[in-house]
Amino acid sequence: MHAQRKALRAPHAFDGRTFLSDGATVLIEDDTITGVEAFGHDVPSDWPVTTYDGTLLPGLIDTHVHLVSDGGMGSLERAGTLSEDELDAVIAQSLRQQAAAGVTTVRDLGDTEYRTLAFRDHSQPGVPRIVAAGPPLTAPAGHCHYLGGCVDGPDAVQSAVEEHVERGVDVVKVMASGGMLTTGTDVFGVQLTAADLRLLVELSHLHGLQVLAHAHSLAGIVHALDAGVDGIEHFTGLTEHGIDVPDAVLARVAEAGVTVDPTLGFDAAAMAGAAAPPTRMMQALSRVGLDFPTAYAARLAVAGRARAHGIRVVTGVDSGAVPPKHHGVIGLAIADLTTAGFPIDEALATATSVAAEACRLADTTGSLRPGLSADLLVVDGDLRSDSTALRRPAAVMVRGVDATWFGTPA
């Protein structure tokens, strides 16, 4: 059987680390990149070439999504009550929205009944690849307990990790602090005992699985660091006095090589029309005298300081959790990093090559490099000078297949 050959080219290009001064022509055979040449490269006459006016770059990686949640009011809680068919329909729609936004890989950090894992088989062309955690592990009545991952005590921890391993998860997610979307949980404190959390990390590592910890509180961040986790999600630094992540904590994170995902990116228009979940968030912030704009500015400052400390930062949105974080707003999160002080190339890398490294996919995707999967995005505009171009996808390709057919909402 002859290889399916084609080429995409654009006058502007980002290879996952840097902008290419001569644009790019990417040569593709079947599902693999076989060459990355200059924009004016002379492609063989029997290779179909599609030329675009904007920027060609690797497909984006959203490192924190909830595919079982559609971003509607209370949708994450509602996921715990849906049938398998209903869950599958939500997952498929979430993937469509991600593909439409140029996301070619997602890391799902909380489903229910392990439903997301069934979508990893790549049998349907053009569907984003998935790194899946299964149900997040949490304390009884803890954050996201409604997804079914409650543990209490060493025996329960061991059983839960063993089940996740048997089910074939790619990573383990644990709630090290309370969450703003779960009534009754403590967003300023910690969840799980130090011994249970450490055991969870040790057992997961024995099976070669990374552990990513949800931590909004400063106490939760330290709790997760003490346990030896591989990544910290949100990294808000909430305390009873406001948002505070001391330099000493940032230095610990950098020294330990822990990856931080600040889960930025809010759709302001969707936020204006939202109610209950954001209201809980506002209540938590108001307890320490913060409004949303002030708190968000503080979070951007923390992200900028994390960069200054040499911490590896990745871009995950917490997609699907609430209306302002509906699937497909990763461009807003990348733009937020530029506001926080990241140069545009570094900000883009957090959602391409750096994200691929964090997801253990650097040998598969995340860069324009021969031998990697043909996961590509073309946007309308020059990203070096206009980050809003990320919100104008012109073409999306997953494993060499046009993903725009799939990304069109049903």
Count of β-strands: 18
Number of helices: 13
User: What is the CATH third-level topology name of the largest domain?
Assistant: TIM Barrel
Portion of residues in beta strands equals: 15-25%
Biggest β-sheet, characterized?
6 strands, mixed
Supply the CATH architecture of the largest domain: Alpha-Beta Barrel
Across the major sheet, the strand order is 3-2-7-16-17-18
Q: What are the low-pLDDT stretches, counting only 5+ consecutive residues below 50?
A: none
- Into how many domains do the coordinates divide? 2
Mean pLDDT level:
93
Query: Given the C-alpha coordinates, what overall shape results?
Result: globular
> Cα-atom Rg, whole angstroms?
21 Å
Q: What proportion of the residues is helical, as a percent range?
A: 25-40%
End-to-end distance: 33 Å
CATH superfamily of the largest domain: Metal-dependent hydrolases
Write down the CATH class of the largest domain.
Alpha Beta
Helix-and-strand structural type: alpha/beta
